[in-house]
Predict the 3D structure of the following.
Amino acid sequence: MNCPNAMTIFKQGIHSYRDLPLRLSDCDALHRHEKSGELNGLLRVQKFAQDDAHIFVTEDQIGEEYKRILEIADLFYSVFGIKFKIRLGTRPDDFMGDIATWDKAEKELEQILIDNKFDYFVGQGEGAFYGPKLDILMDDCLGRQWQTGTIQLDFQLPRKFDLKYTDSDGSEKTPVVIHRVIYGSLERFMGILIEQFAGAFPVWISPVRPKSSPLPTLNKIMLLKFANN
Ligand code: ZN
């Protein structure tokens, strides 16, 4: 996993509240030593990359940052014409930290989903051990459900790594970290896309394209959307 690397990088400098949110992106290679028989085409591989990021925020910035991430997810999935649902994973049995912080975070995440009219449901006890999470679930053309992206709120790792920033009143505080992937494993997402389009990709992502083909409209729309963001 990339998480400890991000904590270590944050710890290398002195941070002020003005530096936050601090967003660190990481698409480096990850390895899983899967057991025999568990590998499955592009869907489960031993070496893969994720569109991973760790975002360090103050407690007041959690809502706004989640909203931004959900907007990114909306944009990234809509370009493929994919609809998704969100599962709000709440406190599991083997949780770390105190219940009051968990309750507050869960309420806050649910309010963001309600305010932004996202299609969601609650997965009781399905949070990560360090905090509640939002999982992005998509159905493919055969009606199978895949978990792709995940956005996880974490109060614990920054404490374990003793991370600090200086707040506006000069006091030292611990940041909160948001772990997030939008597509998840890029290899896996590509595998899902191949299934979804049954190999007949839209022209703008097809690896084979007629030489005379102009820049497709959807591609132009995506470029414009990114330019505006
Ligand atoms: Zn992480």
